[in-house]
């Protein structure tokens, strides 16, 4: 049995394990993960996403077209390929985590290879979450298909949460420190040495962040598969928050209408600079674009945690793990399986397959009482919008009585260029923050704690300053916060959107 305390001083030589980190194994996981994400992106951009899954941000601001029945054959082909890829990944993810835990029990797996196992399984979960993003409507009325996938996801989640435990140590995954011989590395230390041990150096806060990201992403996506979970979210989270924000703004608008003093006007504008960004954040979170971001960022993070440690260990493991053996070819050959599913849907006559449900059928089959149907506007350039006039005669409905008034309010918001600009700013902020944090994380893998939590807090602070401060500065120049009430007339082409079908809420 190795002496962990001495290995924490001298390190160990990383030994190759082609069954875990061979280039064929890694490439097979990466290819299937990125093919699935690419399919989701193409479906989103190409109008292959069911209308039920799209939010008003997607349709009105990002101008994404919902799925049209005329494209049902392409839709079915894409769905079949995604199902095949995701099913393959959920099984291989559980299998590779099982191999990793077996190595822990036998005290034979190194930090490097357990890290690889853990994040290969992480990518498998990202693939499956990506698949759920576009399969939610399809799985809704297919209970058996949904049940076994949920069982597989729950199993993989438990394995991932347990597997993250040793990574909590600040000493986990350090490539080199001064007391090591030249050919030794921290990656070569047996992974079991960190099982519930931090060796006095404390817990890596980034590991805590990893737990939160993993659990929140699962709750978010799995919760979207059930009507009752969406109903609970809207009734006890979204609606109370909407009511509180609307009450704040409408109260100040009424005070200004009564007193006509400049201080009440600026209090109203200050409240509006809080209301607009928070509402935009809620709408972005309920959109399909948020699901795409969740999958893409999780996949990028997992890729970095595999590729960078592999590069750092290439000197001692590269020659064997880069060889093309039978064990490296098999995982790649198995990627042909989804191609069979695609060809099946291309070649089998369309009338022999059950066509997709229409949006009306899906809405009939769902519980539509938990969130009222909304209408959203595609704004005209001539729209004149003024929230001061709207809110001074507006009484926010209670959580159980959200009615057409909220539809009118949403039409005003989505017809606003300022509100659209806030939504776009949120999208670019996600990209910018992720780029900076992942870049810094890449430099620190193998060298110590990345401190991503600190960078995230900094990014959050900068975002709050820019979005709320920018909104406050722009409101006086926007029709939303104009001093005098303009006649609110919105010329628009209505886009019907049933929030009861919004699976990403």
TrEMBL record:
Residue ranges, annotated region (Disordered): 353-379
Respond yes or no to whether keyword Membrane is given for this record. yes
Supply the alphabetized keyword list. Membrane, Transmembrane, Transmembrane helix
Residues passing through the membrane, by range: 20-45, 117-138, 150-169, 207-228, 264-282, 288-308, 418-441, 453-475
UniProt cross-references to InterPro entries, sorted A to Z: Elsinochrome_Biosynth-Asso
> Per the record, where are the segments of Basic and acidic residues compositional bias?
364-379
The record ties this protein, via PANTHER family, to:
INTEGRAL MEMBRANE PROTEIN (PTHR37577:SF1)
What protein name does the entry list? Uncharacterized protein
Upper lineage ranks? Eukaryota, Fungi, Dikarya, Ascomycota, Pezizomycotina
